[in-house]
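User: Fold both of these, please.

Assistant: Here is the first one.
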Amino acid sequence: MSRTQILLPASFSLLILAYLSVFYVQEHEKAILFRLGERVVSDFKPGLHVMTPIINNVSTFDARVL
C-alpha cells in the first residue's frame, strides 16, 4: 500500500472527528450538554467549546425567549 492510500483516509477521518467535536455558543444562546441522554452541564459561556462526539450531544436555544 502506498503512503497516500493510508494518509488520505486517516486525515479525512480526523477532519470529520474534529468537526463533530467542536460547537459554538453565541452570546444570546444557552447550551446544554447531554451525555447519553442525561443533562451534564448547562452553564456554557459564549465562545468555542469542545465535546466528545457520539457520547455527548449539545442542544442550543435562544435565551432571549426566556
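And the second sequence with its predicted structure:
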Amino acid sequence: MRLGFDRLAYLVRSRVGEDPEGGSLFVFGNGATNRLKCLWFDTNGYCVLYKRLHRAVFELPLGESGTRSVRIDGSALVKLLAGVKRSTHGGGNDRTSRGLVR
C-alpha cells in the first residue's frame, strides 16, 4: 500500500476507466486484506483515508468474473470498513487477490 494520491488517481483512470474527480469514492485493498485506502476528490483536492486492521480482515466484495472492481452503496462501505474477525483456523484469509471497490 505504498501508493499515494496521484498513483491511486492514475489507477482509477487506467484500470476502472473512471474520472477520479467525478464524485465517487474509490477503495483499494491489499493482498492480505488487512489494509485499505479510500480515495475521493473534495472540491479542490484529493483525500485519502488509510485503514489497517489488527486481528481482523476486510471482506472485499467479489466482482463479476474477470472484473477488478465492483460498485457498492454507503451501507456496504460501512460494513466493509468495519472488517471481520480473522479466522482462528488456518491463520489467515485465503483471499489474496487485490481489489478495487468504487
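The CA atoms of residues 22 and 41 lie 8 Å apart.
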